[in-house]
Specification:
The complex is a heterotrimer of chains A (445), B (315) and C (168). Chain A is mainly α and 445 residues long. Chain A has a single domain, classed as Formate dehydrogenase/DMSO reductase domain (Formate dehydrogenase/DMSO reductase fold), CATH 1.20.1630.10. Helices cover 65% and strands 0% of the residues of chain A. The longest helix of chain A is centred in the middle third of the chain and has 35 residues. In chain A, 48% of the residues are buried. Chain B has 315 residues and is of the alpha+beta class. Chain B folds into two domains: 77 residues, no CATH class; 221 residues, Alpha-Beta Plaits. By secondary structure, chain C is mainly alpha-helical. Chain C has a single domain, classed as Cytochrome C3 (Alpha-Beta Complex). Chain C contains nine helices and two strands, in the order αββαααααααα. The chains are: A mainly alpha (445), B alpha+beta (315), C mainly alpha (168). Chains in contact: A-B, B-C. The interface between A and B is large, with 90 and 76 residues.
């Protein structure tokens, strides 16, 4: 794409290509305004697509295999480990990483911090896709995925925590679709829809916070069903749901940092000045939130260990593993964030954001898979499960990229190309995007 | 309004509400803890009698139309099967298995039957979001495969690791576990197939309350023969299948770290918090919104149609 | 003398006969008992009763107190130390073939004064009674050593299953 843009091609970013030209058609918008030849060319030249192709060549047939022959052919068919990597990663990791939607939505809409608007849509999309693909992972993992809607319409088991998760995820997906639909309506040119959604934005956001609090917590509460099976250091009799909820906050925020870093380095052509110029500022602000969230989580975790009197476990093998997770996933990021934010080292902020994402994933995998059944035996998931998990993750990336290329998430939709678009949404002094320490900080975020 | 004044109407309604609240409260105040299933049947498994003949496995296989086993049911080499360092467990082809143990300090082999314990307050039932499990009045915990989605939360929840899943089925995988022969026998008051088949009457069938009395009597009459504990009397809130043993239970792979509370109690606090969040969060965050924003900033949602960047950056 | 001798002889013979009959104990004690009330999976058992009476010192080892001899177990003796001979002594006369039939359970529940609510069924008492001594004395303990399996039994136990061990 970069080559094409240098050659003068301009991807679709407005209602019509020029003042006296007819509006873009839907098909043209899909192709970013490129000719099919140009589009295919850029797709084939992209080395990332070659890797994706390889992965899909193996993974997609495996997916078909799973559906044709049952879970038994792609898993160990374990009755002791009913939940494997598909849920351990696809549900338990992806959901906290998708908490970005309600975090940035709250920041901008509830707290009125419109200085974070440039990154808000990305955070919302991140949230939507994360939850959507959590459901996709479920559809692969469930024994009878065609019955996915049963807890909603056929047979209710309201005593179960999973019932809450199912309803909340379904409702929250609707909320997120609505929130992202604003960008979609802009893109397809239906401003009436956009107006209507904007009217209920506050309601949607508050609903989003409620639903997120409860289902992030509920995913943690699921492990309350198996107190003896999860290792005590990862199990809190009283606070399991708070731990999961509290850790989802830095998870979502750091996922936004990570994704925006990837975008900055691979898709800068799609971003407009509004996004790129404010990215460092937003990143710093998000990092501050993440650091506070991490510190709070650390504090809660220590309380939880004290509450269940689990100190003795620290001196065991699992105890060292717990300390590893706490150090690299929580304490080190806190230290690095503090240093990086203070010195405005954006590269370090971004690296720490990614480290935190890994730390959160480690925590979720530890709880759901690695320390699960710690008293009996450990089982590595089937290699096919690994492959399918990676394949679905790649599909997620492809869908993510597809939407980012087209919808006005990273750029501002223009009614006509020569419309001047102000890049500063808040009437304060321009924020400095600090990459070096020589840049003066004229206003703090 | 007609003859009644609005004030009178509201006062009457309020009085009515108060009256109904207090009228109903007597019952609510009387509601205490869960009383169990007084008519529930149970089975007492006396491990001191078991000789490991596996006839119960054969009986179950026949009664429940389970698939043919890999090895004959009188093949004792299955006791040597070890997978992942564990002895046999229930699986999609076997609702019950016998395992052999060699307790310390004795070269006498001891055999133990493993099957669903039909808890009074089952964890599987508590964790099922489509209500696929049901605890019948007769005491059986049964399963409805017509609504099961295959989430396998029940397998995670069961403290005894009993439910198995038919992973081998592509289009109709379901949970496989002992159902106390409910459909074929218990409904009519008959004992399950395994109980009837046992040559040594390891299993005694009867009302759960009576079985506890019988168990206590056996312990009393033979103090040197039995460990003074009925496993399942209180564990996990009480199970309808209980055990007597002549050797310490933990030597027979019984989980001795289980609480006497049913698993459901672990999630009650969280479930109670849910409506609180639903009630408090709206006001809390709407409050934050009102406090954090004011018209002076100039950001209103009145500016929907403005060409201000707000619009573009807004959702 | 001749008349007196004949009468005495007759009397003696009669006395002897009755005496011998008395010595034989219960003249209805069987030599062999065929246990066939339960058999579907296994052939009927030809139980050599005479052999067992010679092995055991006391009828009460198997028959509790029903043969008039005191019960073996101290537990039983608490109530049955002086219990007389019962009308019936065969196992099947007291131990039900279906111990958990609804009628049996109901009778137990209704009789509040009944002590023996834990009486095992017939199949169980055969095995529980026999196995202890058989194990201690090196007598047959294998299922088919006492009763051969019927074809229905072979089917029941899936005798023709030839698979390898289950892998998980």
């Amino acid at each position: 794409m970069k080559a094409l843009i240098e050659a003068g091609v301009k991807p679709v970013d407005s209602y019509r290509p020029g003042e006296n030209k007819r509006p873009w058609t839907f098909k043209e918008k899909l192709m970013l305004g490129l000719t099919p030849g140009q589009y295919l060319g850029q797709a084939l030249r992209n080395p990332f697509n070659w890797i994706l192709g390889l992965i899909f060549a193996v993974g997609l047939p495996l997916l078909a295999y799973r559906y044709l022959f049952g879970l038994g052919v792609v898993t160990h068919s374990s009755n002791d480990y009913p939940w494997g990597l598909l849920l351990g990663f696809g549900l338990f990791c992806m959901v906290p990483l998708s908490a970005s939607g309600f975090m940035l939505g709250t920041t901008v809409e509830i707290f009125g911090r419109h200085d974070f608007e440039p990154i808000e849509r990305l955070a919302l999309l991140n949230g939507l896709l994360g939850y959507f693909f959590a459901v996709v992972y479920l559809l692969v993992d469930l024994g009878q995925p065609w019955r996915l809607a049963y807890p909603m319409v056929i047979s209710f088991g309201p005593v179960a925590v999973l019932f809450l998760v199912a309803w909340h995820v379904a409702t929250y997906l609707s909320v997120q679709v609505a929130e992202v639909s604003v960008a979609f309506f802009e893109w397809i040119g239906w401003l009436g829809g956009k107006r209507w959604v904007r009217k209920i934005a506050i309601g949607l956001t508050v609903a989003g916070i409620i639903l997120s609090t409860l289902h992030q917590g509920a995913l943690g509460a699921l492990f309350l069903y198996s107190p003896g099976k999860v290792h005590p250091l990862w199990y809190s009799s009283a606070f399991q749901w708070i731990l999961f909820f509290a850790s989802s906050i830095p998870a979502g925020l750091c996922m936004v940092i990570t994704v925006s870093t990837v975008i900055k380095h691979t898709m800068a052509w799609r971003c407009d000045r509004n996004f790129l110029d404010n990215l460092d500022y937003c990143t710093l602000g998000i990092a501050k939130g993440a650091a506070m969230g991490l510190f709070t989580y650390f504090f809660i975790k220590v309380i939880a260990v004290a509450h269940d009197n689990e100190w003795a476990y620290l001196a065991t093998g699992w105890g060292f593993w717990w300390m590893f997770e706490m150090f690299f996933g929580v304490m080190l990021p806190i230290i690095l964030f503090a240093y990086a934010i203070h010195h405005r080292l954006l590269w370090l902020v971004r690296a720490t954001g990614f480290l935190t994402v890994l730390g959160i994933c480690l925590n979720r995998l530890n709880t759901s898979l690695i320390t699960f059944n710690w008293t009996i035996y450990q089982e590595l998931p089937h290699i096919f499960e690994f492959i399918i998990t990676i394949t679905l993750l790649c599909i997620y990336v492809v869908v993510y990229r597809f939407i980012l290329y087209r919808l006005p998430i990273l750029y501002t939709w223009k009614e006509a190309p020569q419309e001047a678009v102000a890049t500063e949404p808040v009437k304060t002094e321009p924020r400095v995007s600090a990459g070096t320490s020589t840049a003066p900080a004229t206003s703090s975020p | 309004m007609s003859g009644i004044s609005r004030r009178r109407f509201l006062a009457a309604s309020a009085a009515g509400c108060v009256a109904t609240t207090f009228a109903g409260s007597k019952k609510a105040l009387a509601a205490g803890t869960f009383g169990g299933y007084p008519e529930g049947m149970g089975v007492l498994v006396d491990i001191t009698r078991c000789v490991g003949c596996r006839t119960c496995e054969a009986a179950c296989n026949k009664e429940q139309n389970l698939p043919d086993p890999e090895r004959p049911f009188d093949d004792m080499s299955v006791f040597d099967e070890i997978h992942h360092g564990q002895q046999r467990r229930t699986n999609e082809k076997a609702y019950t298995v016998i395992n052999r143990y060699e307790p310390t300090g004795s070269d006498q082999k001891v055999y133990r039957k493993v099957q669903c314990n039909h808890c009074a307050e089952p964890a599987c039932l508590s964790s099922c979001f489509v209500n696929a499990y049901k605890k019948t009045d007769e005491g059986a915990v049964i399963y409805n495969d017509k609504v099961c989605v295959g989430c396998r939360n029940c397998m995670v929840a069961c403290p005894f690791n009993i439910p198995a899943y038919s992973y081998s089925s592509a289009f109709d995988p379901i949970i496989k576990k002992c159902v106390f022969c409910y459909d074929t026998r218990l409904k009519e008051g008959r004992p399950p197939a395994c109980v009837e088949s046992c040559p040594q009457q390891v299993m005694t069938f009867g009302k759960r309350d009576d079985l506890i009395k019988i168990a206590n009597q056996r312990i009393r009459n033979n103090p040197d023969l039995y460990v003074d504990h009925i496993y399942g009397e209180h564990e996990m809130g009480g199970t309808h299948w209980m055990y007597l043993s002549g050797v310490p239970f933990d030597e027979l792979a019984f989980n001795m770290h289980l609480s006497n509370e049913p698993i459901l109690n672990n999630v009650k606090d969280f479930l109670g918090t849910v409506p609180m969040v639903l009630a408090i969060w709206p006001a809390l965050f709407t409050g934050f919104h009102l406090l954090a924003t004011n018209k002076k900033n100039g950001h209103g949602h009145e500016e929907e149609e403005s060409k201000h960047n707000d619009e573009g950056g807004d959702q | 003398m001749k008349n007196w001798n004949a009468a005495t002889m007759n009397l003696l013979v009669l006395v002897l006969l009755f005496g011998l009959a008395g010595f034989a104990g219960a003249t209805d004690m069987p030599e062999t008992v065929v246990l066939d009330t339960l058999g579907e999976l296994y052939e009927p058992v030809e139980f050599d009763h005479t052999l067992h009476t010679e092995l055991g010192e006391d009828c009460s080892i198997c028959h509790h107190h029903t043969t008039g001899t005191g019960p073996e177990s101290a537990n039983c003796a608490r109530c049955h130390a002086d219990s007389p001979e019962s009308e019936v002594v065969a196992c099947s006369d007291c131990h039900e073939a279906e111990p958990f039939a609804a009628g049996v359970l109901q009778a137990k529940a209704e009789d509040r004064m009944r002590y023996h609510k834990d009486k095992p069924g017939l199949k169980a008492v055969y095995h529980l009674s026999c196995m202890g001594c058989h194990e201690a004395w090196g007598a047959p303990v294998g299922c088919q050593e006492c009763h051969a399996r019927t074809p229905a039994g072979d089917d029941y136990y899936h005798a023709d299953a030839k698979g390898d061990a289950v892998t998980h």
